Amino acid sequence: MHGVNMKHILLVDDVLTNLKCESLILKDTYKVTTARSGREALECLKNVVPDLVLLDIIMKDMDGYEVMEHIKKNPETSQIPVILLTADTERENEEQALAMGAVDFIRKPVDPQVLLDKIGAVWAMEE
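Above: the chain's sequence. Below: its structure in token form.
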């Protein structure tokens, strides 16, 4: 374990550059596991229960909504907060994401401070 009580984040994005950038922003504060696809993320969740899933919406094999549906349907993972990441600026997508159970929504390109603040806010709500 990295640090005492270090929160664990599963970061899902099919673009390697995004994964690297987002991991760099998070790695000093959180333990980060990455997945390159929706299927890989769901496989990962069979063995690991992270404190939060950061999930890209637009991915090739299975989009973020589909992955989130699986996460929310599974009693073992349904309580994990999900923040969706997207380059899309459509309001409907944001509304759909929140209606499906996402706790928040972050637009790309990701602003490091916004990312850290929104993730921090998820746990602030629990306290």
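The radius of gyration is 13 Å.
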